[in-house]
Please model this.
Amino acid sequence: MSDSANLGLVRSIYADWERGDFNKADWAHPEIEYVIPDGPEPGTWTGIAAMADSLRDQLRALANLRVEAIELRELDDECVLALVQFRASGKTSAVEVAQEGAELFYMRDRKVTRLIAYWDRERALTDLGLAPEGDAADAAG
Model:
């Protein structure tokens, strides 16, 4: 699978998510591993149905959830890092939520086999051994 094919697959996923459409899962391997390492409800789920159940649980308290890819980085032949902006409002409180996160897509044979969704972008970059944005400039200045 070429680099452009991996990025194309991830772009197509975000095209739906940016519109708030989380119903499609044709991009996911049947035994996908879905991981949320941080945030309000961390956990690990296996399979499309379990991933969908987890997303439904997360969406119960939120209205108008949108996930926008700010930047995509191909880390290797099987992994794409997406720096994202989550936006939503509380269903009962109507409080607006905006969070900078990151998502890692591990792919094989044009299917996502593992998706790691970080609420905290800095934690994702630290876990990957990448300097969070601005750190190099901060250290030099």
Remarks:
- Residues 136-141 have pLDDT under 50 and may be disordered.
- The first strand starts at residue 28 and ends at 36.
- The helical segments are 3-17, 48-59, 121-127, 135-140.
- The chain has four helices and six strands.
